Each structure stands twice: as C-alpha cells, then as structure tokens.
Amino acid sequence: MSTSTTRKPPTMEQTTLHARQEILDAFIARRPFSLDEFQQRAISHIAEGHNVVVSAPTGAGKTVIAEAAAVLALHQSEKLFYTTPIKALSNQKYRDFCARWGKDNVGLLTGDQSINGDASVVVMTTEVLRNMLYVGSSTLHDLRYVVMDEVHYLADAFRGAVWEEVILSLPDGVQLIALSATIGNTAEFSAWITAVVGPTSTVCTDFRPVPLTANVLLNSTIYPLFSKNGKHVSQHLQDRVDRVLHSPNHHERFPNRIRIVEALERENLLPAIDFIFSRAGCDSALAQCTRSRLTLTTKKERQRIYQHVDERCHHLSEGDCETLHFSQWRAALGRGFAAHHAGMLPLFKQVVEELFSRGLLKIVFATSTLALGINMPARAVVLEKLTKFNGTTHEELTSSQFAQLIGRAGRRGIDATGHAIVYYNQEVDLDRLADLYNADPSPLRSSFKVGYNMVVNLLAHHSYEDARVLLHQSFGQYQNDAAVVHAQRELTRVDKQLAAVDADISPEMSDYLDLIAKLNAETKAWEKKRNKDKPRASKGALAKLRRGDVICISVRKKPILGVVLERPRKNRILVVTSTWVGATPLSNVRHNGHSLGHIHLEKKCAADDAHTVKLARRELAHSNIRIPKDALREKNLHPPAHLHHLREKVRCHPLHGHLTEAEIAALNRDRARLLQQREALQHHIDHSSGTLATNFVHVCSILHDAGYLTSDYQLTDAGTLLRFIYCETDLICTEAVREHAWDGLDPAELAAVISAITGEARKETDHYWPPAQTEVLADTFADTQRIARDIHRLERKHDVLLSRPLYGGLTTAVYRWASGAPLEECLIVAKMFGLSVTPGDFVRHIRQIVDLLSQLTKLDTAEYQHLVDCSYQAKKAIQRGIVAESL
Predict the structure, then answer these.
(1) Nearest Cα to Cα of residue 369 among 742, 728, 132, 88
(2) In whole angstroms, what is the distance from residue 790 CA to residue 806 CA?
(3) 3-state SS class at 795
(4) Dihedral of the alpha carbons of 501, 506, 510, 513, in degrees to the nearest 10
(5) pLDDT tens digit string along 784-820?
(6) Sheet architecture: strand order including 175-180
(7) Pick from 204, 220, 245: which residue ends a domain?
(8) Average pLDDT of span 697-712
(9) Cis peptide before 507 (omega within 30 of 0)
C-alpha cells in the first residue's frame, strides 16, 4: 500500500491519447449494438487515463466498458486484471473472454485453478488479487488496468473488506474501473477512490436498454402493479386483492409453481427465472414440475439439450451419475426446467447457465446468487417473497437487492420489454411494493474490518504509525468520519435547543429535572437487568406443554396458577387463571416451564369458549395443585444502593412535592427528549472515531502476545509465516503449523484436519465431531482444538472475536474421500452423523480444502518440509473425480 493520500495519475508513455482513441473507435465500430451514452462516457474517461466508477442497472451493459479497457491492454502489450466476487462468475467471464480474444490471451486464477496467469487479460476472484498485492507477485508486472466487477459486493459482511484491501493496495499507475449495480452514494464512493487512488470519473445511469414493467401474480393471473399514470397502485389490482382476501379459499400456504409456470407460458413470458430464497424451495419447485405433465420444450429443443448435457457430462462415472440423480436431472432439463443454487454440483450449474443463455431452458428456479453477475437474462423474473434470510434472520429486501433481482428481466435485442413479477401472498403490501419499485438505490456501506493476515502484511511493508494511517484511509473510516462530522453538527444543534429550554427555567428546577431524568434512566436499567436475570423456562419444557397442563406464571410480580388452553406459539401461551383468560408471554412462565399437573379438557371445545374456561377454573379450584415455593425465586430483587441514594436525593430536593407528576412530565418532556438525543449522538461520536485504529491496536496486541510481533511491531518468523495463510481461521492454522501439530500425518489425515479448519457450521447446533478414523488423527484433532481454544481465550482477553470455531462435521467424510472412497459413500457417512450434505456442498468444501492445501505447499522453509510434501499428496488425493471436473 502506498502511504500517499493521492497517487500520481497514470502516464501515457506507451501510446498517445489519440492512438488510444483510435483503438477504442475500432472496438466500438465492431460492436453489434451502438453504444449507449453512459458506455461512451466511461470509455472516454478510460482513454484519458482516469479511474472510473460506473453505476448502472443490472443488464445495462457494463461489461462492454471492461472489454474496451481489455482491448487497450491487448494492443499496448500491458495487462488487465478482471476481478469477480465468486468463482462461478470468474469461470463464465473466462469462457466469454476466451471466445472473444482466444485462450492464449486470457488467463484464469481462482485459488483452485491457475490457467495462463501471465496472459494480457486475467480473470480472478478478488481474494486472489489481494493475495498477489500483499506478496508483491511478479504477475503484477506490466499491470495497467484493474476491473472490479460487482464492486457493490464491498458491503458484504463476510468478504467485503477484501475489495477495500485491493483498492488501498493498488500500485501507482494502475487504472481502476469499478463496475457496480445502482447504488445511492456513488459520489461519496468516487470521492473516496479519488482520495486513495487518484482522479476518478463517475458515470451513473438508471437507463435500461430494455424497459421493465412491474406486475403482480395473483391467483394465476398477472396484473400490472401500477395504474396508467405509472405512480399509484392500480385500483383494479387492489380490488382483486381485496376480493381474494375476503374469499374463504384464499389461504395458500405455499406457491403452486405449476400455476406460476402455466401463467407465464399463457402470457408468452418464458424463458423466466423464479427467485426462491432457499435451496429446498428451488428443489421443491423443480419436483413439482417434474411430477406434473408439464413440458415446455419442442422435440428439436430436447434433442439439443440432451446433446449438450451428454457432451458436458460424458466423463461422469456410472456410480457418480447414480449418486447425483443424473437421469432425473437430465430429464427435467429436457422438459425445459431446472434449479440453480449453491447446493448443486458446479458442473450442473454451469450446464444450466449455458442452456438457459441459449434459450433452451424455459424456467429456472434459483436462489439470489444467480443475480450476482451471472449472464442469464430472461424475458420475465418472478419473486416469490420480498424477504430473505441473511444467515441470522429474515429481513426485507433493500431497494438495491430488489433492483438487482428484477434487473435480469429483459433480453437486449430479443425482448421489447422485460417483466418483473411479484407473487402475491398475504405478506405482500402493495403500497410497500410500489415504494420498492420507485425507491432510490440503497447506499453502499463499508464492511471493512481488521484481520490478522491483513495486519502482518501491512506491517511487513510499513511502520506501525504508517499502517494506522493507511487503515484510516479505508472507505469504512471515510464513512465513519463523515458520519461523525454530521453527528457533531447535530450535537451542536441539540445543545443550543437544550440551552434555550434551560433558559426558561430556574437553575434549581433544572437541577431537579436532571435528578428525575437520572433516576428514571437508572431505574429502567436496573429493571432491565432484573428481568434479564430472572430464571427462564427451558425451551424443552415449554415444547412439551399441552392443553390442560397446569403451570405457574408471573402476573404483576406475583405467582399464580394457570391452565394451558393451547400449546405455545410465537413466544406466547394461551392460559386461563382464576380471574382472567389470555395469551401471556413465555417469559412469564415460571418453575422452568414444567407442568405442575394436568386437568382434563374436552378436545372438541374451542380453546377459549365459555364452557372450557368455566370447566378449567372449576377443576383447578378443586385440584390439589399448589404454587411451588421457588416459583418466583429471582436474583437482585432489591434495588441497588445507588438507586436508593438517588431516590433519597429526589425526595430531599426543595422542589419535591411542589409539582404534580403531570407538571413535571410537561416540563421534562422536551428536555428529556433532547437529553436522550444528545446521549445517542455523543455515543455515536465516541464509538465511531478511530474504530478501525482501535481494532488495529487490539489485533496487534494479540499478535504480540502470541509471538507474531516484537515489542516494536516487527514481524517474527511466525509473523512472516502468517503472511501467506489466507482463511477465516488464519491465526489458528498458522499456530498449528508453527507448533508442528500436523507433522506425522498421512495425506488423508491431513485433509481431514484441514476440513476442520476450512469448514463452517451452517447451524449453531452443528458442532458435533465424528469419531476420528485413526489414533493419530484423534490426537491431532485434540491438539488443533487446544490451539483454537488458546486463540479464542486470547481474543476474549483483548475483546476481539475474529476466529470462528472449528467445524469437524465433515472430517470423516473428507478422510474417506481422500482415501479413495466413492462420492456416495462419503455422503452416506456425512448423513450417518446427522448432516444433510448435497454433492455440491461436498465438492465446494473439498475445493476450499484444496485452496488451503495449495497455500501450505508454498511454505518457504525447510522446517516445514514434511507438511509441504504431505500437502502436495493430500491435494492430489482429493482432486479427483467430480472434484477435479468442478475446478
């Protein structure tokens, strides 16, 4: 990374601006379509030597801009690196560029593949370029252009920081071409790139070469969302929705995909992509279609599909074909439908993409990853939901996510109009949907964070202070600083308003109101802590409760008995007590949620009808069930001493008792609101300023304590070793290498251990480790887990949580695969230990292991020679069959 804030603009030593323009004019003349205005502007800026940020809708034609830069690189004997966020997109761009410029001129680097890396145009994942920049790879020689496709991926919580690392690390003289879907803060993003890279031109457009219509699919009929003026929800659609909602048969729990496809076919809207935000949903949709009589292809199309599938999959063994359900998959393709999601074999996904792009497939049920740059335009796009699971919870789609998904609709040169269709269910609010269509794009937010590998690579080239300065140049800090300036301005405004309020009251009154405000805040904080410390009912006990069970609940802090009328749902339970009937929060259930007894209630009666309630109360009164003595045992029931002290100060204040509660509330309302605003703003300022720098200090402390940095922030031998290990558990991995914990393993055992390093549990409960296959492996697992515990303990000490837990769920399956077992056996082994692993999941996991093993083969010291040799052998052992074909 360069320590200068602004770099020198690229020079024009090899060719003049006029010559560059001639090259580009010839490129433009050969295009099958005339370029749009935004494309022409971006290409002109590239010719002038500027960095360029291009923000345009999905399908608008941003790739043409990158191709123009590639033509310049080819003519100037220079290099262009084209980065993508995912390997699938890298593979597709590689194939596209090879078809355009020939295999001799194009390379591919994706971690597990290295093809012609010294070519003039090299496609790679963003992580590969980051790694090359950190180690100063010779491949960077003659690099002139870096294209960052899908640069809005910078906001990704898990991998987005890599984009910022690359931008901050670009050598002087390299032009950056950042291609993004529409974002709401392009000017801010461009200003940051200007500050850290050099002069940057911004090209924004909301122009779509194929116009898009907004529609709603309701009961197998497709309706326009908007009225003729294009601004308001169509009244006709609203009437139809109201009619359906009041119909007795409108409760459709799951979409009927057959009806969706038939509606699309009837309206001549195929080929289409149906976005379903789950793998299981995609597979279920495909199963619905295969069970039906639906066939969307002609005989000639089926022949072309089968021919292409057989050519691409001829190498698959009979056993693999059976495990992969190849015949069923091929048959579904022949009828015109397919699924596309991360759980599929990469080869199968590629075949689906190829067939769809040729117009042979008519409907693809896909997860949102398909929206990420893959070239699969359709006539129509269907969204079955407007919410998406983010790994933790379901959240509404942002306007940018929504726009990227529907942007697949409309094929340039084929369709006059693209059709975006939202499947109607009761969760869809038509006004909210209209707002989503018309909303401005979401702003790009940095997800930059400090990691171990990043820190040692920074300190390998820069002093401690210079490294801190560089971190302050990140987009994350740039945004934080802007936010702090805004918050500081708001704080000044609030302070002025507070002063104006205080000017109208006496100092004595101001002091009294401050005391009351502080008492209220402290009381609220104590009550929150007290409620948190209350013993909670266990989920297991609550799940066992059934109609008629007697439980103890807390009402106004007092224990009473209640009879369960319905099993718990949505964090509440319906009960009847001696005085009332209603749904109470599960947090009010005491005695650990266990039933204290049971009363027989007739099943035929409604839960809360008068007869049932009367019967329950009578039976409860005549039962011998009593409230347990420990039912409401709570910690910290008595307020702390400082709260008593505050209450006493309020009571002793001269104004206490002279004002009613209503008068105090009236006086305190504006003041309390302003004080609350002030506290929030001050908290934001305190926690935003220098956040990255603070994290940098913490990470350096951990590395020093672990022996990777000296006291003056120089790299030790261990720190140098860490520079070349890139994974989310990089410090654990490096520490295991450093301790020689993996020496003495055979290739299959090493592959199993690396599986635990690279693997990640899909659910919080997925932390079971299958029994080790050998005694040596059992000991090595124990050693590696000990190392992980030590690192996690060190992280907790410094209040930094960077290393995820190890995951041993697939270690046995990987061991079997490395030992030569067939795919089917490995999947069965995984299933034996409670894991539902698809062939695609397994292949992707093996590819991650290959990536880390490849890093270990490059360790540059005789001290680790055994590990280097074993890594070569392990890599060779697992890179076979469908794994080798999927690289």
Answers:
(1) 88
(2) 13
(3) helix
(4) -100
(5) 999 999 999 999 999 888 999 999 989 999 999 999 9
(6) 114-115, 106-109, 121-125, 79-84, 143-148, 175-180, 51-55, 200-204
(7) 204
(8) 95
(9) no
462 domain residue, yes or no: no
Q: Count the neighbouring beta carbons within 10 Å of the beta carbon of residue 597.
A: 15
- What 3-state class would DSSP assign to 883? helix
Whether 3 is covered by a domain: the verdict is: no
Range of the domain at 119: 17-204
β pairing state of 418-423 and 212-218: parallel
Give the pLDDT of residue 6: 45
The CA distance from 144 to 13, in Å, is 12
Q: Give me the pLDDT at residue 306, please.
A: 97
Cβ-based neighbours of 247, under 8 Å, separated by 6 or more = none
Instruction: Tell whether the model's pLDDT for residue 5 goes beyond 50.
Output: no
Q: How far apart are CA 376 and CA 408, in angstroms?
A: 7
Answer yes or no: do 667 and 735 share one domain.
Answer: no
Q: Which of 346 and 488 is assigned the larger pLDDT? A: 346
- Helical segments of 689-742, H only: 691-705, 717-722, 730-738
**Whether residues 527 and 554 fall in one domain:** no
- Phi then psi for residue 822, to 5 deg, are -70, 160
Same domain, 430 and 497: no
**Other CB atoms closer than 10 Å to residue 868's CB: what's the count?**
16
Per-residue confidence (pLDDT) for residue 784, from 0 to 100 = 96
User: Are 110 and 62 in contact, with CB atoms under 8 Å apart?
Assistant: no
Sign of CA dihedral 282, 286, 287, 292: positive
- Asked if 357 and 398 sit in the same domain, the reply is yes
Q: In Å, how far are 72, 298, 749, 769, 853 from 752, measured between CA atoms?
A: 46, 48, 5, 11, 11
Phi then psi for 249, rounded to 5 degrees? -115, 30
Work out how many domains the chain is built from and give that number. 5
Q: What's the mean pLDDT when you consider all of the chain?
A: 86
User: How many Cβ atoms sit within 10 Å of the Cβ of residue 209?
Assistant: 15
Residue 12 reports pLDDT greater than 60: no
Task: Say how far apart CA 422 and CA 438 lie, in whole Å.
Answer: 15
Q: Identify the residue whose tokens are 């926690």.
A: 687
- Residue 465 inside a domain? The answer is no
Strands 549-555 and 558-564: antiparallel
CA distance 752 to 846: 10
Question: How is residue 661 written in tokens?
Answer: 């509660």
Q: Which residues contact 86 (CB under 8 A, 6 or more apart)?
A: 125, 369, 372, 373
Instruction: Please tell me whether residues 301 and 173 are part of one structural domain.
Output: no
- Domain of 582: which CATH number? 2.30.30
Residue 709 lies inside a defined structural domain of this protein: no
CA atoms within 13 A on the CB side of 382: 32
Q: Which helix (H) or strand (E) holds 818?
A: helix 811-818
pLDDT(635) > 50: no
Q: Do 135 and 274 reside in the same domain of the chain?
A: no
Judged by average pLDDT, the poorest of 224-228, 515-519, 700-704 is 515-519
List the one residue out of 738, 773, 735, 739 whose CA is nearest residue 757: 735
Per-residue pLDDT, 511: 77
Residue with more model confidence, 817 or 636: 817
156 and 228 share one domain:
no
Tokens of 440: 């401005």
* Amino acid in the structure at residue 242: D
Q: Is 155 in the same domain as 234?
A: no
Question: Any idea what DSSP says for residue 233?
Answer: B
Any idea what the CATH number is for the domain that residue 137 is in?
3.40.50.300
The structure's pTM equals: 0.73
pLDDT band at 595 (very low <50, low <70, confident <90, very high): confident
Please give the residue that has the higher pLDDT: either 770 or 748.
748
Q: What percent of the chain has a predicted confidence (pLDDT) above 70?
A: 90
2 band by pLDDT with thresholds 50, 70 and 90: very low
Give SS3 for 317.
coil
Phi, psi of 338 (to 5 degrees): -160, 165
What are residue 561's DSSP bridge partners?
552
